[in-house]
Amino acid sequence: xxxxxxxxxxxxxxxxxxxxxxxxxxxxxxxxxxxxxxxxxxxxxxxxxxxxxxxxxxxxxxxxxxxxxxxxxxxxxxxxxxxxxxxxxxxxxxxxxxxxxxxxxxxxxxxxxxxxxxxxxxxxxxxxxxxxxxxxxxxxxxxxxxxxxxxxxxxxxxxxxxxxxxxxxxxxxxxxxxxxxxxxxxxxxxxxxxxxxxxxxxxxxxxxxxxxxxxxxxxxxxxxxxxxxxxxxxxxxxxxxxxxxxxxxxxxxxxxxxxxxxxxxxxxxxxxxxxxxxxxxxxxxxxxxxxxxxxxxxxxxxxxxxxxxxxxxxxxxxxxxxxxxxxxxxxxxxxxxxxxxxxxxxxxxxxxxxxxxxxxxxxxxxxxxxxxxxxxxxxxxxxxxxxxxxxxxxxxxxxxxxxxxxxxxxxxxxxxxxxxxxxxxxxxxxxxxxxxxxxxxxxxxxxx
Length: 448
Description:
Elements: H1 9-15, H2 17-47, H3 51-60, H4 64-78, H5 81-96, H6 108-136, H7 142-171, H8 173-192, H9 203-206, H10 211-223, H11 226-232, H12 234-239, H13 244-255, H14 263-289, H15 293-315, H16 320-348, H17 351-382, H18 387-395, H19 399-419, H20 425-429
Helix pairs in contact: 1-2, 2-6, 2-7, 2-8, 2-14, 3-13, 3-17, 4-6, 4-10, 4-17, 5-6, 5-8, 6-17, 7-8, 7-14, 7-16, 13-14, 13-17, 13-18, 14-16, 15-16, 15-18, 15-19
């Protein structure tokens, strides 16, 4: 059986028109998102300066996913994913214009309200986008497609944050939100040009059962496979330390402030460094270590440790330039976790359940990162701890999911190995490599 040549990013974009259009939509939408995010954080820290107010913004951008995510997954698996993404983009673009009225402290409620609505719409868009990638790519293209999508998010984080920080200082907050609205509309246009993207399996769409019964069916599908349960909690493990984002505005304004940079420019630098690290991570590991499931699984465990070490150093950094370097390395580890867990889900989860899986994963992720954010914001305002001390304690948390992941892999390997009485698992489950023109086999869990 001939192994497929590794697909390059250029070949993927050149030869796969549907993915290229999806990617272009992501490109402009992500740019606008991060452009406006810096503006939001900047204005709120100027108007309030409260750790809990900043935490409230992050929660408004995250927590609604927890409540609607699982049901959004049912919708994504039932209906045309293309239409779901288009309407989500259009409505988010309209809502983005509402932020131009955010000019006084008493108007802060507008920010929370609009962000909650945007997050509700994103709860449909993101599972649809994630679920559709295997529908528009060949099996041999999936790893490259995920790496490119993840790196695009990261690159736009770096570029959008850097430009957003400078533009907000020079042009004002209204300009940032107008640009954000325009990028949503442009993203909707690119997605509109993609062929219809219904789930491949129409059985779910034809079922007469209510969404709740299909949600239960999706949960049962995950519950019956221990490995899928493990994959479900990889990104939520990453969210345990997600409250670190609450510290960024404080470090930029009060701890690492430099005469060379305004608060928004310093915050933009931290986010840009985050984008650079996330951009490098998946590409570096794929290029130098390969793309086998074994490499992906092991990288996940080590990624948590990279995050912990990096943010310990960030919490003690003497200035924003060195702090940005450690933000970059920490996000390097986090990006590898995100990218490889997404790819493993694409390999393991059937198309008819994929939307529900991604939506449930996002719901758990947002709940945990919201809790982490609340704890950090409350600690800054109520505990006798400095921001550096809060950051140091938070940086120790990723050690826990790292240990749990390695224990999980070891115990699962041992249990499955016993069941096969010493048979070679490459023979039982198929080769981990992707073969040209063939379906990708389940990943080899116990491959050494």
